[in-house]
Amino acid sequence: QRMPPKKRTRGTTAEHEEPAAKLAKKDDDEKDSSGKGAKGAPRRRGKPEAGNSGMQEDKGAAAAPAGKEVYCHWLMKSEPESRIEKGVDVKFGIEDLKALPKQTGCWDGVRNYQARNFMKDMKVGHEAFFYHSNCKEPGIAGLMKIVKEAYVDHTQFDKKDAHYDPSSKKDNPKWYMVDVQFDRMTKRFIPLSELKKYHQQHKSNGGVLKGLALFTRARLSVQPLSKEEFDFVLSLEDKEPI
DNA sequence: GCCAACGTTGGC
DNA sequence: GCCAACGTTGGC
């Protein structure tokens, strides 16, 4: 089941705000409600999902409205080891995704506005790293693809769910999820410790990973990578571990 | 299991 | 709107 719970917020909200990708900025967003609001939990989980397959596409969207950057690469965290939260085991590792029908699941349980907004920016076909967190060996285990764009996370209305959010109303849902499909394992597990070494190094020499969100926004469970960051990280699978 | 970092809550 | 207290994330 799921993961982090947390919840509570205040009331209402406005809604969907936009997706946004902000990035460099930080903040997040949401305008939701009144001011405060968000909760915080991130993470995810997955499960089969029913529908799907969607394909929506974006249309021209792309045009970058000046100002906001558009990302096509992501890193999503999930816990591969059992941990009971509100009576439910939140374990969901890459092997669990792989075991689902069509190797596809919904990334529910995200209860952080910024992470949610990043999910709303995701388009079908985008690639994401499956990151194992809060476990013996944290790091990137594999790759997955976005196969369905953001839609209402039903677990926010489920009292039995670890991420139930009593403040969210059916007619104005706060939380969204995407469907992801297992793509492949990385050729080798890329440990956080190794990424950290590159990050340190790059902070000194201006390398690609100097601003990697994994280190600059450590608690964000859904985070964007630039194409350069994504390619660099992926290239590590063909190199010797440092 | 500890605990630093940081996001959220809620009084004022 | 500020900010102290509190709760969560997630590495170690």
Automatic annotation (TrEMBL):
Residues 13-34 have a biased composition (Basic and acidic residues). Specifically binds 5-hydroxymethylcytosine (5hmC), suggesting that it acts as a specific reader of 5hmC. Residues 1-64 are annotated as: Disordered. CDD domains: EVE. It holds the Pfam family EVE. Residues 73-235 form the EVE domain. Its main location: nucleus. Residues 1-10 have a biased composition (Basic residues). One of its GO terms (cellular component) is nucleus. Keywords: Nucleus, Phosphoprotein. The lineage of its organism: Eukaryota, Metazoa, Chordata, Craniata, Vertebrata. It is found in: Nucleus. InterPro entries: 5hmC_binding, EVE_domain, PUA-like_sf, THYN1-like_EVE. This is Thymocyte nuclear protein 1.
